[in-house]
Amino acid sequence: MQESGLFIPRNPLRAWFTTSWWLAFVSLGTSLVSGSLAIVVIALLTLVVVTLPFALVGVLVFALMIPPLRYADRAQLWSVKFFSGVVTDRASPPRAATFRARFVESVRGPTLWKSLLHWILRLPLSIAVLALVTVQLIVPVVFAVAPLAWLITDPPGSQLEIAEIFTLEVLVVIAIPAALWFVFVTPTFVTCLARADWWFSRSLLGASAQETRVEELTHSRTRVIDAAEAERFRIERDLHDGAQQRLVAVSISLGHAKSRAKSSDDAMLRSLLDDAHRETRNAITDIRALTRGLHPPILTDRGLDAALSSVAALCSVPVDINIAPELGGISRPTATMESTIYFLVSEALTNVTKHAQATRATVSIERLGQGLKIEVCDNGRGCAVIQPGGGLAGLADRLSGVDGSLHIESPVGGPTSIVVEVPCA
Amino acid sequence: MMLADDSVLLREGIRRLLTDHGVDITASVGDAEDLLKELSEVDVLPDVCVVDVRMPPTFLDEGLRAALVIRQRWPAVGVLVLSQYVEERYAAELLRSRIDGVGYLLKDRVADVDEFVDAVNRVAVGGTVIDPDVVQQLLARAPKDDPLARLTPREREVLTVMAQGQSNSGIAATLVIGHAAVEKHIGNIFTKLDLYNDSADHRRVLAVLRYLGAT
After folding, report:
1. Quick check: A165 pLDDT over 70?
2. Which of A15, A207, B29, B44 is the least crowded, having the fewest Cβ atoms under 10 Å away?
3. What is the CATH number of the domain that holds B179?
């Protein structure tokens, strides 16, 4: 009962006084609507089959009907949720970046076919459900009031043949169970019917247990990654405001002391101050490198373009950076995504510096459908491979955390291109 | 001079250091808002403000924004921006409007006392001071197949120091070469890069920075 969100009381009479029964009743009434939707879907499918011989027209119509079909699925699940109060995750939609890729993904996965099966079966089901409800409501009532009608409308000895079979006695004998049926069974029956109807929609349109689990895991993974990113940001800030500031203050004091000791005769003092000053500065440089590796502040302040410009400056070869302007403004990726891309490009450019022997490199980031495409190319000697524990392997790991994909093309003699695609709304 | 930095420790260190070198500090505040308030209330404007980039409340770039406001509302006041990280993007924003009386330095340069005091003084009199790291970033980003490649290593060094806003004598002192040599190198650089050699230091910096694509 909990499972469907419908309350069926043990005492069948009380069912009349629960909201569940009325909701179930109205819900089955909406079968009219979903039945009509089913007619549209079946009509479209027929159109697909008919147009299939005409080259790709049928396929195109099919591809075009998939997105609206998903809306129909959603509407159906929403109405189930509205009436039953049970939230059903819908089966996972395709995640690919382009329309074509999404189409391929839909055709391959079970979601689309289950949805089509739902709508094809939905029509006879809706008709059956409506018929059953009507019968449940009308037939017992008709039989229950028949003796009364018999008494009021016609005296005994009617002309009708039927009256010969349905004598008042017979009618009264039938009327009693009919009335009992109506009072005690009808509400429970209608409620059960509604439950069956909802179960049908949920099992074909909703996510399977496995899909729900995947969905949950995806969400929790996103939360974990976001939390890790926030933590890196916090550590960077703490180091910046704490240790780094203190060290700078120490180094300023040491510089000050050094400048005052300049005229001193104590060579030992001067040399000690020099050492202390130098080591403090080294420590500052170390911390700066560390905090930059955690989360570069300019990334938060100014976005990818600015942050990557300064990474490019550290690369041994000139780097052309082309980043779609809207990524710095209206459609800025999430902090986690920005950070992932930043470290991805940093690592790729470090590899260029270290191994590629290139003279040029290019970085481009652009929107690709509902995702981002990041490309890092160089004209070096090629042979880049993902080695376990290497920088590229780390990149691939980090990318898999955001459902990204990494392709490396690096023939002997170059050029090398690393193409990454990540989903990014 | 006025000083804005959210770390009391640093503020004190810088204040002590500069006072010791004869710089008169009129106000020392903890955030950008206070600095702007001080500026609008004083009778005699300071020659220069030294501002930290990351300050409360957001700890992002308020110092930089305050610097831009000061540039606009009090053009006579020089601004020296200090930061834990130097980024050419910030430098570009700072230099966009006007290039005289602006400085942008990595915070730990303060520890090189003489250079820092020199930088403060230069910004106070309308000079330009740019962190060597920024210039490195700019030089690294410039395409390699352009006339920069035709510069000799020595000329590149001179260009780097010049872009930081140093005068001829400053360049000579930094690179430990003679005045005549500096002038000769600068002449060569401007000829090779096809730039107009202006005698005023800050306009010369502007020309070089423009060339490097900073502004």
Report:
1. no
2. B44
3. 1.10.10.10
- Asked if A284's CB is within 8 angstroms of B140's CB, the reply is no
Say which DSSP state A242 is in.
Answer: I
Could you give the CA distance from residue A351 to residue A349 in angstroms, rounded to a whole number? 5
Please give, rounded to a whole number of angstroms, the shortest distance from the CA of B180 to a CA of chain A: 30
Instruction: Mark out the alpha helices in A240-334 (DSSP H runs).
Output: 245-260, 267-294, 297-302, 304-314
- B104 and B48 co-located in one domain: yes
Closest CB to A313 among B90, B114, B140: B140
Residue in B68, B89, B145, B160 to test binding to A, most A beta-carbons within 10 Å: B89
Structure letter (DSSP) for residue B150: G
Asked whether the predicted pLDDT for residue B87 surpasses 60, the reply is yes
Q: Are residues B123 and B90 in the same domain?
A: yes
* pLDDT at A242 > cutoff 50: yes
Site from A241, A270, A310, A315 to mutate, B interface, most B CB atoms within 10 angstroms: A310
Distances in Å between the alpha carbon of A408 and those of A20, A159, A317, A401? 58, 92, 20, 18
**pLDDT tens across A8-28, in order?**
666 777 777 777 777 777 877
The dihedrals phi and psi of A421, each to the nearest 5 degrees, come to -120, 130
What's the burial of A376, exposed, middle or buried (CB within 10 Å: 0-12/13-18/19+)? buried
Q: Please tell me the distance from the alpha carbon of residue B205 to that of residue B209, in angstroms, as a whole number.
A: 6
> Residue B185: how many CA atoms within 13 Å on its side-chain side?
22
* Cα gap B11→B28, rounded to integer Å: 7
What DSSP string describes A140-208? HHHHHHHHHHHHHH--SS-S-SHHHHS-HHHHHHHHHHHHHIIIIIHHHHHHHHHHHHHHHHHHHHBPP
For the four alpha carbons of A284, A286, A289 and A293, in that order, the dihedral sign comes to negative
Other C-beta atoms lying within 10 Å of the C-beta of residue A296: 23
**Given CB atoms, is A282 within the 8 Å cutoff of chain B?**
no
B118: containing domain: 2-130
**Same domain, residue pair B73 and B103:** yes
User: Exposure of A363 by Cβ count < 10 A (0-12 exposed, 13-18 middle, 19+ buried)?
Assistant: buried
